[in-house]
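The records we work with from here on pair a chain with its fold. A complete example follows; check for yourself that the lines match position by position.
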Amino acid sequence: MKARQSDTLGSCHDMHLRRAPMPHVARIQEFFIEGKNQKQSHVLLHITEPTNAEEWKRGYFFAIAEIEEGDVEMIGHAQRLIDDIESGYYETELNAGDKGPFETTLEFINRRSNHLLHQTGTLSCIVGVIHDTSISLSYYGSPHAYVFFSQKNTIEHINILSGEHDEDDTHLFSAVIEGTINQGDRMFFGTPHITDELSIERIKEIVMSRPLEKAVEHIEHVLKDARKDESFGGIFCDVVEQNTDMPTPPSNSAASLQNLIDKQRETTETLSPSLFGGKKKTKTEPGRQQKRRNVIETNHRRRTGEEIIGGTIPQMILIGIGRALVFTGLTLWKIIKWCSIGVSRIFVTLFILLTNKNNGRSHALRSLKETWLNIQSSIGRLSLVSKILFLGVIVLSVTFASSLAYLKIQEHYRQKEIVYEQQVQAIEDKKAAAEARKIYNDDTGAFNLLKEAETLVMTLPQENDNQTKKYEELKSVINTALLDLRDITVVDAQMIADLGAKAEGAHASKLIRINDTLVAFGPDDNRYYLVDKDTGSIEVQSHDSLMKITSGNTPKENDMMVFFGNENQVYTYNQETKVISRTEISYPTESTRIAAPFIYNLRLYLVDQANEQILRHSKTQLGYDKGTPWLTNNDGVDLSDAVSIAIDGDIFALKQSGNILKFSAGKPETFSISGLDPALENPTDLYTYNDVESIYIVEPTNKRVVKLNKQGTFQSQYTSNNWIGPTGMVVDATKKTIYVLDDNKVYSFTM
């Protein structure tokens, strides 16, 4: 491809070009996705298709522009700029010098549009013309322009704008790039933010691996699913061999031929709308037909000659139809008026007959009798023809009223049917989008789309057998897809100890470990149980003199265990005597309510639920010191329902609600769980450490152990048919073994 400038535009640039054999013509496919914030990003996508012989000599005109952080005035300037370039290009004479109409038009635009260089927003724009296989373009800002081609069994791409001129302060379009499109190559022009969602490599792979229409459909689908604030717009172009099925330029020498082609185009567009529906093609989101106040439409369509109804006979027909409609409307109005008056009189008469208000019943009866006699007399005086016409009017009136009622009912049911079909289509679209995300290993995105589809399925009506069948079918399909993403592993958990069989009335709910011994305990049991994890032997110890033990933890050194009672009491376990005794500790405030202990680097960390704080205590000869607040910023932090914490340098706090809070260097950090289904519900314990890659959570509600990475992304979840509701857990990450306490039984399984 070759880049060229006129004397007023600057220097010349050369790029690689391969000529396409003739006869070939260019084919254009465009896409447009409107963002959520048009003030932040407004895209103008404009394509002009020639409609007469003179315009066919000049080919197609296209323009793509994105205005970022621009006001309504700047958007209007950009729209008028595109309109001026289009008008100038098609109206400038051909062969009017050594410069073509496109370059001449851009020179004129450069002289009168410098004010756009000093607007508050940011403009990125690319304009061009395509005639047969020749293309000329120019640009301003940061649009994308690439050519994709096959070379030696590989697919390559060239950035057409790479190495081109630098922008200056005096011209919008300072260079014209010219060349031809080779058969088999595909060109891409687009707005800057497209590559935020799809890399050029990915676009190249999509475009060169499937038909152009399918490729554009796929890219449009991906960008639409991104749901970004920015809008996206772009054009893909390739060349195909011209054949008899393709439209040919009209000839000025034969008006009848032009008329024939016009009719052919109209018929074709009616039966199968073409890519370009008129001289200007509008690409916009469905439902954007209404104009919005203070918002300039992203695209518009210029009215062409074919859209104007001409000729005396069509006008007369329309006038006649209009008069007939007016006459019919007035007649219906009179009939409705008379009927309303008659119905109101009937209701008044019935009211008087029923209530005898003001003794008017006898008068009402006489009036009814006289009215009936008058009607009979009037009908009797009518001729036979009049009677037939009168009867016909009555029949027609009843038929008309019945038809209106029937059509209204049909319209109501049809509207419900349309809404239902749209709901079903939305569910199927989300499922298809989820499958596409899964192909690209975006399990989180696929999961979110399937959850949205599941919500839509639950809103489907089930008013008849077909709807019920469709509901069950879609529900099953979505559940199957979700089950695949849930990655639930049913493990063969081996029971290594049964506390209830060893000690009657055992009620253990927590599990910790010291060396090779598992320790089970609970607030509703005055005993604790030492279980050998290898042999399964159980040793029962009593702690009658102590407060109820609610939680505990073992440091990495495995030299002690720390327990907490329900009144902020701290106890330590002596490994030699196997006795739990109270130890000294104090707190910064009297209102402290302690939960969730964890020992890290010989320091004891506790959650103060009353003050939304994490306390850090250093060890002393008699126990632990008063402790200091570890959180330097706890604004908005809710630790009132924290049930467990774990530390790997950062602190992770598990809440009873199922949320996990993360703190780093004393400050809260953003953390959320993604890809997990169903969501956590009343979990009881959490574990990780600085040499453990994942976070483990035990949850009795769904009888499972959940594994997340340290960014909150779901990895896997484990359950067992033997479990009822596991509440305690010990993780041996080195041996990839998890020990679970469930219903006074200790199980183990391998990950």
About this structure: Residues 1-22, 251-311 have pLDDT under 50 and may be disordered.
